[in-house]
Design brief:
- It is a single chain.
- Helix 1 runs antiparallel to helix 3, helix 1 runs antiparallel to helix 7 and helix 5 crosses helix 7.
- The chain has seven helices and three strands.
- The chain is mainly α.
Amino acid sequence: MKLKRGVMQKWASGCSATFQIFVPHDITACSRIVILCRNPHSHPPPVPGKTPPALKGIFFDLLSLLKWKLADTTPCRIFLDTAFIEGLQQALSWDPVHYGRNVTLPDLHPSFANLDHMRRLINTMRKDYYPRGTGYDGMYYFTHFNIANADRITRRCASR
């Protein structure tokens, strides 16, 4: 297998990092590339982009699949929930056999790789779904107030 050297264009910055990219001549035979980085970056990472509202809506729809488990869900726990992952696969038309791996939220949008961002979105929906919290007072309120209108809550979260 022969490798050829890739080309990167240099941006105007004081960063001393250099990259070497090796791409195989026959990319279909070997679909992997090698990237070597030398010297540390002298600049901060790029400013994170906003999650598009439509993708937030998909995320909130998937969170609504958790139902009562939303009360104590975390960004790490949603990856273990079968209903959430199956919903994400359907939303992305993802075939694990074709892609060779299971779907993850950053496949929906790169901003979902930020666990703090995901935690904030989960808390936003949790506050709308459980307005009095998840303790005793919250459960009393939840059982005596008909909150079956979860679709309204999902739409309100997505519009933020």
